[in-house]
Amino acid sequence: MISIIAGTGSLPLEACKRLLEQGKKFFVIVLFPENNLAELQAITNDHAELIVHDVYQAGKLLELLKEKAAQNVLMIGKVEKNLLLKRVKLDWLSIKLLGSLVFKTDRDILERVVTEFETNGIHVLR
């Protein structure tokens, strides 16, 4: 099972189209429903489950991926800081991940999240 973690913009939409064309089974975790939920619903047309999720709760996100038996994750689309900062709700895993970083650049944070997913048996597609 493939999971798309969808940021903003057209890339998540294109990824859904390609997976549908290939007949792949997938679900989409929508980080910013106010930005692209309607478009994702129109494209997937009930062929993929859409789940709205709070990006700051890494523990719940990881739990969801395991529950849905996601073996591969594609993180695609823009994650704008101004949208992220509107809803700061860190869970324990998020705090742990951020606390483990010496530097907290976008790249460092993303690499730490990727490492956590892969440590838990979920391959991040690159």
Q: What would you say this structure looks like, in words?
A:
The protein has helices spanning 11-21, 33-44, 58-67, 81-84, 92-99, 106-119, and strands at residues 2-6, 26-30, 49-52, 72-76, 123-124. The radius of gyration is 14 Å and the shape is globular. The two termini are 16 Å apart. It has 6 helices and 5 strands. Strands 3-2-1-4-5 form a 5-stranded parallel beta sheet, sandwiched between helices. The longest helix is centred in the last third of the chain and has 14 residues, at 106-119. The chain is α/β, with parallel strands linked by helices.
Question: What layout of secondary structure does this protein have?
Answer:
Blueprint: E1 2-6, H1 11-21, E2 26-30, H2 33-44, E3 49-52, H3 58-67, E4 72-76, H4 81-84, H5 92-99, H6 106-119, E5 123-124
Parallel strand pairs: 1-2, 1-4, 2-3, 4-5
Helix pairs in contact: 1-2
